[in-house]
Amino acid sequence: MDTANMFMLLAMAAYLAAVIGIGIAYARRNDAVGDFYLGGRKLGPVVTAMSAEASDMSSWLLMGLPGVAYLTGLADAGWTAIGLAAGTYLNWLAVARRLRIYSQTAGNAITLPDFFSNRYRDSKKLLTWISSAVILIFFIPYTAAGFAACGRLFNSLFGVDYVSGMLLGAAVVVAYTAVGGFLAESASDLIQGIIMSIALLAILIFALDWAGGPGAVIDRAGALPGYLSLTRSYDAVSRTAAAYGFVSIISTLAWGLGYFGMPHILLRFMAIGDRKKLTLSRRIATVWVVVSLSVAVMIGLAGYALSADGGIPALAGSASETVILHLAELLSRHGALCALLAGVVLAGILAATMSTSDSQLLVASSSVSENLLKECFGVRLSDRATLVVARATVVLIAVIAAFIARDPASSVFAIVSFAWAGFGASFGPVVLFALFWRRSTLSGALAGMVTGGVAVFAWKYLVRPLGGAWNIYELLPAFIAASAAIVLVSLLTKPPGRDITEEFDAVARTEN
After folding, report:
1. Helix spans in 125-245 (H)
2. Which of 39, 271, 404, 453 is least buried, going by the fewest C-beta atoms within 10 A?
3. Domain 3-511, CATH homologous superfamily name and number
4. 467 three-state secondary structure
């Protein structure tokens, strides 16, 4: 192993040791299951903001989005980034405060299925069953995408066997999440968000410098048809441009709708200690997201300029998602200090992966141990036994995700986009109507959740392959279908009881 690789491994090892240390440090603070899954609602505004966004972006931010920009140009990546930035802001503005209040008022819910069930007085736990199933169906492959990014990282840079690298990353995530729970995960997410920021900015600055400056990047990218256009998309295979019209733009902007249904983000809203400080959290989160997404897109464009000059290899297909790895490897060749910085960049990629995987594991674990075992099956456990089951569930789900991630050819972007649509359509409309529509009913919520989940699969595999006007990101039509189902079924069924409407009114008064 050469000196550059040793320095990179040193930086990455220091990061991995730090997050495991955080898990150990917070282990003793989990006296009850509410602490393990929601941190006792004690998060500060900065940790709330950064943990929400770090757990949101995942390896998709450092690998998936730059890869899309590298391969197809500005349109697809740019409109996706705009949609995500808008969705982030609206979610913090409209949902965060009311969900914090409502989740505590409605039986002090500590999970999203708990909130749904308590909000609609679901005595038969149908919402709990279905929402837990949705979480498992979409979060396990989502977590697998993160583990796959770890494997690809170690394989691309150090020649480590893909499966071995993937398992190493998974083991570290499981270690600090299973031991430290929500507080450890949130604290590590804060550090991971900072490392991700350093990684993005460092790579962009050096990539622009190596490519000859922003002007040179624009010149090289502009030589490809449609590459820098927001209304045309570049096809790397045919080397031609295709129209990126209004339907495609609206479809891509629909990524922003996903935020309203992301359990690992919504949990941060439920966990903040002082809801009056959510305004500060919103500002921090929005600025971080806008800057990070913009930098990620620019990295993809700069990476293309460098590959055109032979600075890094030309990349095709899902290999485009390794563009930041090749840039980090190039950085490591410029001396010991740059090699250490390259290690920080690689740690940033690990951070992006882990900050999402840990959140997903915790949410999936809560849906099994807290919602399915205790609520649906009626298993009665002490707090100590519940914590043991919770930790064991984290390990079990991680094993399943690692098994799914064993294929190195899978695309991080493709897996994340489908899981994002699944949560956005299944949970997003239910969350919004539960928070803001007094007349919504249990039957309406059930209809919306099922319709959203089924519509995602139907559109993805039956409708979208037809192409043309039907080639719309499945989140948009599924979200609309779920919303329509909630409204229609709620209006056709018996209005909610007085206790439900009085609770809704009390929450509205408290928020105002």
Report:
1. 126-158, 162-210, 214-222
2. 404
3. Sodium/glucose cotransporter (1.20.1730.10)
4. coil
Q: Specify whether the CB–CB gap between 111 and 266 falls below 8 A.
A: no
Distance between CA 298 and CA 230 in Å, rounded?
Answer: 14
Task: Answer whether 193's CB lies under 8 Å from 52's CB.
Answer: no
Query: Reduced to 3 states, what is the DSSP secondary structure of residue 234?
Result: strand
pLDDT, average across residues 189-207: 81
**Residue 109 exposure: Cα atoms within 13 Å on the Cβ side:** 28
How large is the C-alpha radius of gyration of the chain? 22
- Do residues 1 and 162 make contact, with C-beta atoms less than 8 angstroms apart? no
For CA atoms 419, 421, 426, 429, the dihedral sign is positive
DSSP states of 361-403: HHHHHHIIIIIIIIIIS-----HHHHHHHHHHHHHHHHHHHHH
pLDDT at position 272, please?
80
DSSP character string of 409-456: T--HHHHHHHHHHHHHHHHHHHHHHHHH-TT--HHHHHHHHHHHHHHH
User: Helix or strand or coil: residue 213?
Assistant: coil
E strand map for 193-299: 232-235, 240-243
Tokens 């948009």: give the residue: 476
Nearest to 508 by CA among 199, 124, 109, 98: 98
How confident is the model over 389-410, as pLDDT tens digits?
Answer: 777 777 887 888 888 777 776 6
Looking at residue 333, its pLDDT comes to 80
Q: Inform me whether the pLDDT recorded for 185 exceeds 80.
A: no
Sequence ranges of the domains in the chain: 3-511
Helix, strand or coil, per DSSP, at residue 2: coil
How far is 1 from 146, CA to CA, in rounded Å? 26
Q: Return the structure tokens found at 8.
A: 């990179």
Contact 39, 186 (CB under 8 A): yes
Q: Helices 3-26 and 336-366: crossing angle, nearest 10°?
A: 30
- CA dihedral (6, 12, 16, 17) positive or negative: positive
CB contact at 8 A, 472 and 251:
yes
